[in-house]
Each structure stands twice: as structure tokens, then as C-alpha cells.
Design a protein that fits this description.
The protein is α+β, with helices and mostly antiparallel strands. The chain is built from five helices and six strands.
Length: 189
Amino acid sequence: MSTKKAAAKQQLHEMEVLLELARRISTIESLDELLETIVAMTAKETGADRGTLFLYDDAAGQLYSRVAQGTKYREIRVLSQAGIAGHVFTTGEGLIVPDAYAHPKFDRSVDDETGYKTHNVVCAPIRTGKGEIVGVLQMLNKHEGSFTEADLTLLEAMTRQTAITLRNHQFVEHMKVSRQQEMRFLDLL
């Protein structure tokens, strides 16, 4: 197959995945369920064993796991510049790591804490429409082989959807709060 045909096939697959994701999340109201769906679909489509969605906690200067598949721990926290996730967060560049333990940015403390062994990683920043990085989406341990550029491209597309989902949810929450304030004001009158 020519590289042009392969690229077109990959792009078509990416569009199909994004349409399926949009269809699935259109019926979900809970932010946690929305984010879990995004991580689960991304892990499935990239062939990853599990995925983690980290969001930035500005007050603590840390990334925290909003969704962490396969872990019994409630939350994973890492410094915003530590490890592969921190590197991707601070540089704003997606990264493919074929051998985690050989990579200088890999922080094995989470593996030590959870008992899970990371072999390979693909990670991309979650960037708002205004360009602000609010977190990262990371996939671990591809079932067959190592992560590819196609996996990173798909992951980046999923992070764009994640940013839109987060923004829309924040907008809806803001509207609910505004509505409640208006109702209280009207009650006073």
C-alpha cells in the first residue's frame, strides 16, 4: 500500500473514532463518566493496556490523575515537571517512549507505588482552544509492539476532544451556578 493511501486510511480511521466518541459522549452528563469514556476508547484504539488522564492542579503545582485505569489507588499525583507526563505538560510536545525504564524522563516511583510495570508510553498534552495546557493524556504498554506516530496522532486528536469536553462541562456548570444565583436574587425580590 502506498504511503499516501496508508495516510488516507489512517485519517479516515481517526475520523471514525472521533465520530464514535462524539456519539458516545453526547449522552453522558457526568464529567467523570465522560473522561472515563475518552480514556477507555483511547486505550482501546491505541492498543494500550491502560491509560491515565492527568489534570493540572495550579495551587499544588502538580498533575493529578482524574482517570487512572487499572489502579486501585484513588489518585496519582506527580510534580508538574516530573516524569514523562510532566515533561509533556511543560514542553507541550507529545512523546513516544518505546522503553520507559531507559528514558531519562521516566519516573519509576509510580510503578514502585502501584506495582505496575511500565514498558512503553505515548503521551500528549491536553490543550484548550486558547493554547493553555490543562493536563496530559497518557497510554501505557501497547499490547503488540511499541506505540507509533499513528498512535500519537490519534492520542492528540483525543486530547482535543478532551479539552472541548472539559470546556463544555465547565460552561454548563457555570450556567447552572449563574441560574441558581439568579433564582436566589429573584426570591429576595
